[in-house]
């Protein structure tokens, strides 16, 4: 499935979080599954390895409040093509997406 081009989250540090990784041979995008390293239920925030933090949109919180945030490689982050500055967090177990905003490293 071709979605677009691979993007990275802008950071001020030397590291970057790849939102999607591309396969050079087929030129299609392959999701990179991520493990949530830390989760703050009260503030609806989560961190991936490397310190990349995101916050779940308030209007989407009811969708993901009961997700298992520490169950392993369960999430994929996509750039939201319809809403500039937003990303979509996909849960591979539920098949649901929620809006998230990048908070930095």
Summarize the structure.
With 105 residues, this protein is mainly beta. The protein has a domain at 35-104.
3D architecture notes:
The chain has one helix and eleven strands; from the N terminus they run E-E-E-E-E-E-E-E-H-E-E-E. It has 105 residues and is mainly beta. It has a domain at 35-104. The chain has a seven-stranded antiparallel beta sheet with strand order 5-9-10-11-8-7-6. Strands 1-2 form a two-stranded antiparallel ribbon. Strands 3-4 form a two-stranded antiparallel ribbon. The longest helix is centred in the middle third of the chain and has 4 residues, at 61-64. The N and C termini lie far apart (30 Å). The model is unreliable at 1-16 and 20-30 (pLDDT under 50).
Number-wise, the strands total 11
Overall geometry: globular
Tally the helices: what do you get? 1
Helix content: under 10%
Q: How large is the share of residues in beta strands? A: 35-45%
Lay out the secondary structure.
Elements: E1 8-9, E2 17-18, E3 20-23, E4 28-31, E5 34-35, E6 38-40, E7 45-48, E8 52-56, H1 61-64, E9 73-79, E10 87-91, E11 97-104
Antiparallel strand pairs: 1-2, 3-4, 5-9, 6-7, 7-8, 8-11, 9-10, 10-11
Any descriptors?
single chain; 105 residues; 7-stranded antiparallel sheet; two-stranded antiparallel sheet
């Amino acid at each position: 499935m071709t979605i677009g081009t691979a993007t990275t989250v802008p950071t001020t540090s030397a590291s970057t979080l790849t939102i999607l990784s591309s396969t050079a041979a087929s030129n299609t995008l392959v999701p990179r599954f991520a493990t949530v390293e830390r989760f703050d239920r009260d503030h609806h925030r989560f961190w991936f390895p490397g310190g990349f933090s995101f916050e779940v949109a308030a209007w989407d919180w009811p969708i993901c409040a009961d997700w298992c945030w520490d169950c392993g490689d369960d999430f994929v982050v996509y750039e939201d093509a319809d809403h500039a500055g937003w990303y979509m967090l996909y849960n591979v177990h539920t098949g649901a997406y929620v809006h998230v905003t990048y908070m930095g490293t």
